[in-house]
Amino acid sequence: MTKDPFQRRDKVDVAREGIRVRKASVVVVTYNGLEESTVPCLESVLGLTRGAEFEVVVVDNHSSDGTPGYLRELAARDSRVRCLLNTENRGFAGGNNDGLRVATGDFIVLLNSDTIVTEGWLVGLLDPLETDLSVGLAGPVSNAVGNEQKISCAGLSPEEIIKEGRLWTAMSEGDRFDTDRLGFFCVATRRDVVDRVGPLDEGFGTGFFEDDDYCIRVREAGYRLVCVEDVFVYHQGSGSFGKARRETRELMKRNRKRLEGKFAMRYRPRHPRDRQLDLAESYLARMEEGGGRERLLYKTENRLCAAEAIAPHGWLKRYLFRRAVRGIRARIGQASPGRREATA
After folding, report:
1. CB-based contact 9:38 (threshold 8 Å)
2. pLDDT at residue 160 greater than cutoff 50
3. I want to staple 140 with a disulfide (CB 3.0 to 4.6 A). Which of 33, 64, 233, 239 is the partner?
């Protein structure tokens, strides 16, 4: 029998139970986008983080839109904030490494500046790292990420999307699954993992595949990667590269080649739509074993929507994909109370 990657844990209210949560350092790298992304991100972190001692280390990559002045003022009035002001754009890896060098926490969270966190986010991400030392990286679900951390959200505004994210987390209390890669828009780890694996590889330049690289290195060091399904972080996405598509494609091609050369392999991870179907099937398997029907059906349908949004275009792949979806929907029909009564 194939091992079910879907796991469930018992939720622990850290503050209520009095469990000591060690200090976390939230590293945020900024580059322009002050009002559009940086301010909402930092306001959410400072206003919504509960149950854990934390600091926010903001590394600015030489912004020209007033970000440095804002960060100085913020650090002056909030002792939880520290800022580093680079005199050049050090890229994603370089900026985060600058933050890692000065971070003082037992846990490290790398958080993109175009995100908005939600209630319980930090304690939720730290939980698997605190309770299971085999876990090396933990990440949330989101509306915009290039793997199976993505859930389907129909909303257009951040407020609408976050509302949908809250519904998902309410239906996912205690749930998590193992994965081969996590998006570094928001990822948490322990200090001992960073000490063992090392910093991000700055050879990838301004961005792309440095997160894949780090995930591979963490797995090669013997750690697991876990997606925490009852933590949702809104991600604007494409903030730094969306306006330069040609340059972005060239950078991705170059960095993929660098990654493959570094590990002497052809890097073709399982497609996100296939992973979405894997998860849908794991939810159904749990439901068939007596799990919570309503929440698992909701999550299965959401995963199918996420998969169908990125359906393949080639006729053969599309045929096989549609056949897989039909098979899952047939199992949903068989599992529904009305269907069972009608066939009894």
Report:
1. no
2. yes
3. 233
- For residue 238, the model assigns a pLDDT of 65
- What's the pLDDT at 181? 96
What DSSP line would sit under 244-281, residue for residue? -HHHHHHHHHHHHHHHHHHHTS---PPPHHHHHHHHHH
Cα torsion 168, 110, 34, 162 to 10°: value is: 0
Scanning the structure block, which residue is given the tokens 């976390």?
Answer: 24
pLDDT at 101 over 80: yes
- The Cα 260–Cα 255 span in angstroms is 9
Which uninterrupted H or E stretch holds 285? helix 272-288
Give pTM, 2 decimals: 0.90
pLDDT at 16 over 60: no
From residue 333, how far is each of 102, 278, 337 by CA, in Å? 54, 18, 9
- Is residue 19's pLDDT more than 60? no
Calpha distance 308→53 (Å, rounded)? 41
Provide, rounded to the nearest whole percent, the portion of the chain with pLDDT above 90.
82
**CB atoms closer than 10 angstroms to residue 146:** 15
